[in-house]
């Protein structure tokens, strides 16, 4: 029997093909009630239908919960058990067209722009499917002549100031990809997924900005700075003031550190440690990190082929880590990698979803799949606090990825690998 949560759009119902249509209709109707565009509600409904149809009868009750994240829509599918065969979610697997379960999971994964798993209390498993909103293309206005210098301290901007900064930064090509599409940036901030500091001149016009967003368990990723003043002392002053303002705006005790994956040229690099280098078309650029609290140390579960590299980085960064080789995964088969693809940038980032003894083969197949699609930048992120993630390491190395950076996080260091340039 289906059970509807009246307080929020959430439905609990049995798994299997019989209830798949019921689940899809619920998600479709809830999407309309949430004010989603029909095509987005339809994509979530199709995902719900395929996942429910593929779920085994003994999986227990399945919960469906659609939500609107403004810049994206999300469907959470909660299972009472994690002992599920979800290998069909992996895009790289060859499929029997007659296997409706395998093909259905594949379609659900392809319909999402992002896919993540989360362990629930009591041994359950959550699959989270996100679909990005599309924003109308527009030509942003160019920044006016005669901006600056900075007047006063950077501030948490109102929506109009933030939108103007993003428009001008996009027009000027400043700050990197985070400073693109003002409507998307405003939506991200509205749901708490982005924070900003903006510096203004005496006429209250934005002259620079810096963003930060969640990254990992207790990290924040900085983007920018986007600076609109000409090169010189005034420009450097804005960059330093933005960083100081961001540091003062972070809640200590909650955030352990800051990471900068793609630093803009004006990021005050002296305020960070270099924890690695990422390859790109024109060479490499540094990955920066700044600790905000003392690291208490813990175990880092490392793939055997990467043990020496990680141990060397641990010593170089002065981290208190016991570098251990991870035990093999409990599952014999069914490993899954999630792929977050940015085709405009020619980049894919692979992240473990479910580990199994076939993880190495799955990693090799994923890298081959995206190389064949012409993706030029292939990255992977392993959480060294989760022993199962290490199972993918050997395959990623065999496929041509190399360790690029070790990002400290006492809850689980992040090992960033990248295809050699």
In short:
The chain is α+β, with helices and mostly antiparallel strands. The chain is 28% helix and 30% strand. A hairpin with a 6-residue loop joins β18 and β19.
Provide mean pLDDT, rounded: 89
What percent of residues adopt helix (DSSP H or I)?
25-40%
Which class do the helix and strand fractions yield?
alpha+beta
H-E string: EEHHEEHEEHHEEEHEEEEHEEEHEHEE
Strand order of the largest sheet: 1-2-3-4-6-5
Distance between the termini: 55 Å
Can you count the beta strands? 19
Q: Which ranges are low-confidence, i.e. pLDDT below 50, for 5 or more consecutive residues?
A: none
* Morphology call: globular
| Number of helical regions | 9
Cα Rg? 23 Å
Strand content: 25-35%
What is the makeup of the main sheet? 6 strands, antiparallel
What features would you describe in this structure?
The protein has 421 residues and is an alpha+beta fold. Helices cover 28% and strands 30% of the residues. Strands 1-2-3-4-6-5 form a 6-stranded antiparallel β-sheet, covered by helices on one side. A 6-stranded mixed β-sheet has the order 7-8-9-10-12-11, sandwiched between helices. β5 (114-119) and β6 (125-132) form a beta hairpin. α2 runs antiparallel to α3 (100-111).
Q: Strands, helices and their partners?
A:
Layout lengths: L2 E3 L4 E4 L3 H18 L3 H17 L7 E7 L3 E8 L20 H12 L2 E6 L5 E8 L26 H14 L9 H9 L4 E6 L5 E10 L3 E9 L5 H17 L7 E4 L12 E8 L2 E9 L6 E5 L4 H11 L3 E5 L10 E7 L4 E8 L4 H14 L4 E7 L9 H6 L2 E7 L6 E6 L2
Parallel strand pairs: 9-10, 13-14, 16-17
Antiparallel strand pairs: 1-2, 2-3, 3-4, 4-6, 5-6, 7-8, 8-9, 10-12, 11-12, 15-16, 17-19, 18-19
Helix pairs in contact: 1-2, 2-3, 4-5
């Amino acid at each position: 029997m289906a059970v509807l949560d009246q307080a929020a759009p959430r439905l609990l119902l049995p798994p299997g093909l019989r209830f798949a249509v019921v689940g899809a209709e619920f998600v479709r109707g809830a999407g309309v009630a949430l004010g989603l565009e029909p095509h987005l509600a339809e994509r979530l409904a199709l995902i719900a239908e395929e996942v429910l149809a593929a779920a085994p009868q003994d999986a227990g009750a399945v919960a469906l919960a659609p939500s609107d994240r403004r810049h994206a829509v999300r469907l959470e599918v909660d299972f009472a058990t994690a002992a599920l065969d979800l290998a069909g979610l992996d895009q790289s697997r060859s499929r029997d067209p007659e296997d409706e379960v395998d093909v259905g999971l594949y379609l659900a994964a392809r319909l999402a722009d992002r896919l993540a798993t989360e362990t629930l209390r009591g041994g359950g498993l959550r699959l989270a499917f996100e679909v990005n909103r599309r924003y109308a293309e527009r030509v942003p206005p160019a920044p006016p002549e005669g901006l600056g210098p900075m007047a006063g301290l950077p501030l948490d901007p109102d929506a109009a100031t933030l939108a103007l900064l993003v428009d001008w930064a996009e027009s000027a090509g400043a700050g990197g990809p985070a400073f693109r599409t003002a409507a998307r940036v405003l939506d991200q901030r509205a749901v708490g997924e982005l924070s900003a500091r903006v510096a203004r001149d005496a006429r209250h016009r934005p002259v620079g900005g810096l963003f930060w967003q969640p990254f990992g368990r207790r990290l924040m990723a900085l983007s920018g700075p986007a600076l609109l003043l000409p090169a010189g002392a005034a420009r450097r002053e804005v960059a330093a003031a933005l960083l100081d303002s961001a540091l003062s705006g972070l809640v200590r005790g909650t955030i352990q550190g800051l990471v900068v994956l793609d630093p803009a040229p004006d990021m005050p690099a002296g305020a960070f440690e270099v924890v690695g280098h990422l390859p790109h078309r024109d060479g490499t650029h540094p990955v920066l990190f700044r600790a905000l609290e003392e690291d208490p140390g813990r175990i880092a579960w490392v793939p055997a082929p990467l043990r020496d590299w990680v141990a060397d980085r641990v010593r170089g960064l002065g981290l208190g880590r016991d570098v251990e080789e991870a035990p093999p995964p409990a599952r014999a088969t069914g490993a899954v990698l999630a792929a977050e693809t940015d085709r405009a940038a020619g980049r894919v980032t692979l992240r473990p979803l479910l580990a199994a003894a076939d993880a190495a083969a799955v990693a090799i197949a994923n890298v081959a799949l995206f190389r064949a699609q012409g993706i030029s930048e292939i990255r992977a992120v392993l959480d060294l606090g989760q022993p199962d993630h290490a199972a993918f390491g050997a395959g990623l190395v065999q496929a041509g990825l190399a360790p690029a950076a070790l990002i400290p996080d006492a809850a689980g260091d992040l090992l960033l690998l990248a295809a050699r340039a």
